[in-house]
Protein 1
Amino acid sequence: MTLLALETSCDETSAAVVRNGAVLANVVSSQIKMHEEYGGVVPELAAREHLRNLIPVVNAALAEAGVSMAQLDAIAATQGPGLPGALMIGFKAAQAAAFALEKPFFGIHHHEAHLYSPWISGAPPRADFAAFQPNVSLIVSGGHTMLVLVAAELKHRVLGETVDDAAGECFDKTGKLIGLPYPAGPVIDRLAEHGNAKAYDFPRPLLHTDSDDFSFSGLKTSVRYFVRDHPDILADDQQNRDLCASVQAAIVDVLVAKTIRAAKRSRVRCVTASGGVICNRSLRSELAKACAQAGMTLRLTEKTFSTDNAAMIGILAERKLLRQTAPTSCEAEIALNWTLD
Ligand code: KG4
Ligand code: ZN
């Protein structure tokens, strides 16, 4: 079974070829540099850039995999959620290609694909989904922060999600207040390495409530007031590093504690995590520590497949194909506010 998958939901143009659970190629063209000067993703520019990049990225993925269009058994693309103009480029291109080749087409839920990304690697495949089910999965990126109970393959229930900003957004927006470039998440990660996480005390929103939901806008506001009231701190390198470490610790504490609590409450022994923020070294190590303490197995997504990529779209589409899930109609449209069950 050989599939071509496309992902264009935000600022990454990506095409992947997957075969039997293995990723033969995963080409990602990132637009981060282009959006950097605006301090965030500009939807209209993102869509135009996808238009420019999509065919070269698809050709590169097919060439790397050594696969021709005629050899494909199915085509998949992100159907939603995402930026409307951006989604439309990849979704419509994939739909049209599947129509022309008379092959099945799968419109894939972006968040559902993140749930399967912890199992992606190059050849040989390690798609041992069954051994890690049921699990509680943390999806944490610039656009989303959610906890999902994966009861069995393709059977999920959202336990909680952010009621305002996503965790990545919190990294990026607090970083901007501190004067860091976009995206600030990786920069805070680096600066925090040599900072004192206990230097400044920031709130841990919703940590002591029963809810599995997250909220990060209050933390962002408290950093805004802190920076306004202590302008000298930004001029001092070490205090800057301490500030980054303290903000990071507040975000990481909330993510880790709520994930473990949700896993305990759901009586699962396995935790998985994906999304761009999972590249954060402190989050990776604190999650590993907490899972070990709770006697739980942790499956973290490899960094390459943590940020948005088409490989995760292809891996999930292949599982759907194998399980004889009905393909998506060629008349289907993008799904902007598509919620995960
Ligand atoms: O999954 P992703 O590529 O795109 C979506 O938002 O869907 O995630 C990007 C987010 C950005 O907010 C970025 O700042 C954050 O992931 N990020 C990090 C790190 N690497 C990426 N945040 C904290 N520490 C990192 N090392
Ligand atoms: Zn994503």
Note: Residues 237-265 form the longest helix (29 residues).
Protein 2
Amino acid sequence: MPTSSATPIKTISVLLSAPLDKPYDYSLSKEMDATPGAFVEVPFGARTAIGVVWGKGQGNIPQKKLKSVIRFLSIPPVPETSLRFVDWVSAYTLAPKGAVLKMLFGNPKFLEPKKKDRYEAPFFDPDYNQPILNQEQKNAAAVLIDNVNAQRYAAVLLDGVTGSGKTEVFCEAIAQCLRQGRQALVLLPEIAMTAALIDRFTERFGHKPVLWHSGLTEKQRRLHWQAIAHGKALFILGARSALFLPYPDLGLIVVDEEHEAAYKQEEGTIYHGRDMAVVRAHVGNIPIVLSSATPSLETLENVRQGKYGHVILPQRYGTAAMPSVELVDMRAHKLSAQEFISPPLLKALEDALEKKQQAMLFLNRRGYAPLTLCRACGHRLECPRCTAWLTEHKASGRLHCHHCDYSMALPKVCPVCGAEGRFAACGPGVERIAEEVKERLPDARAAIMASDTLDDPKAAQELVDKMNAHEIDILIGTQIMAKGYHFPRLTLVGVIDGDLGLAGGDPRASERTFQLLQQMAGRSGRGEDKGHVFLQTTAPEHPVMKAMVKGDRDAFMAIELKERQAYRLPPFWRLAILTVSGLDANQVIRATQELAAKAPRDSGLRILGPAPAPFAKLRGRYRHRLMVQAPRTVNVSQVVREWLTTVKLPRNLRLAVDIDPYSFL
Ligand code: ADP
Ligand code: ZN
């Protein structure tokens, strides 16, 4: 814990932005003033490193060996709130403190401006272009504005159907925060979504928000980091990493599309951006808004327990109505193995084209075909480094692994039986749907939207512009199309394989599928013409499909909550996954067994496993894991941390701890 004493001290502890869990002592010359949070340069091994003063010296280095601080950097010290946030995140996620601090730095290079840096932090006018809200929107905005005025912690779920004006409503809270001269942060789950929102915010506040995400150049990030740390940038739009920046006066956080699993960071420091945003709001004693048309079960449960407030926008803005949803029972249509668009969907596409309306075809699979197999012997082409099939991509003409960077040319002969030219592409990816559209609707102008065809936000913007200019009739894509876009001429959404997300061992599979399908459906009929959704499925009886047709989210969520309770899953129970990985399968298995044997007894934890992870091999590493289930009353992070102090893994193995896992692969 950092101390708040500002009196000069002789020995101080300094936390470095490196994967170290504790601060180290350094000495100070008398005239130096060591405010906690101050940035310092210190000797570190043979080099020097930048760190942050964490507090008084702890005596963990003998007096004689103490090295002294080289200099203080001329940046405002990290605010107390940010220091406590680093402590909290580290304690919760089990990530070393220094690794969390690294996210606050962004990059040590951002800490000092370059001589030629010129950056005028933009002025945001809260009243630049204020819309006239309808009554429901006004009521919702009033609640959020009250919270901003109160200047203390309050979490509210802004729950409105797609197109109800949630963005307009939370902009009112941002405007109020700007009037107070405090910083406001909007978080998005994916960079690809920023394009759609930058324009909206620019129109509303007269200037493009200050951005923070990995797609910016190093120079942009340095300028923005400086503007944020000096409190000059007041309105920030960012990815989850923006949460860790050292805001001197953050007054509001908005988490847009709060249900998105993409908020979970799965590598390095494993954390959930939405959950940590709530923690940040709590530590900073400021309001937070969680916005979604399809809130997560976790958030709905927090609302039910009275922990979060709830404001509802039940209708679309203006005259736009919710789209109709029709199930297409694929068992009733005998399509050939090369066809994936059913007759009713094809007919609907033809109708939309005739009326000069736009359509979207949704399939959550990149590439051409997810599986290539030898028709002679049945051999499937797999990644040599992962437990995964290779996906054919027509664009590159190669087979790619979607889990590592492995790729290969399609072989001429089967490596198992030697048969020549007998490989068959099985199943569809978006490229294959595009091919089918070209064959069956040759006059339609089609385009593909998937993460591999849009590698930067600019490409996303170009596609959005083309859609808006009606230079595209049918947009074919993955879940990347589901979020935030507003295309007034889009009236038809066709879901190629509605069952896709339901398979596999993910306890949130139904919830996610429902959310994704609702978000996709939400793209349709946002203008004057009514929208239609055709949902192809082989399981029309599934609760997800029934709820989609009725548009009955609450009924679906009620069923889902019961199941979660029965199976001891979140939000009623807590989960953690401990994955051991290494190059030697037997060594990995043995280590996981030893870890399991040391599991704490009488701690309330239930340990499942050891068992191979579904991706038993990933990027050449074997993976074995334990799943931990715990009642909500148990501090899982604490118990796991203590457990791990009793185990010493061989150095060539890696252990990843995932508290509150969202990926079960
Ligand atoms: P959501 O975020 O709930 O999906 P949006 O904020 O994108 O909804 O609103 C849908 C569309 O309706 C947008 O084009 C938005 O500009 C428009 N809109 C919503 N509320 C208003 C309003 N009060 N005045 C003018 N336009 C509005
Ligand atoms: Zn692979």
Note: Residues 362 and 495 are 5 Å apart (CA to CA).
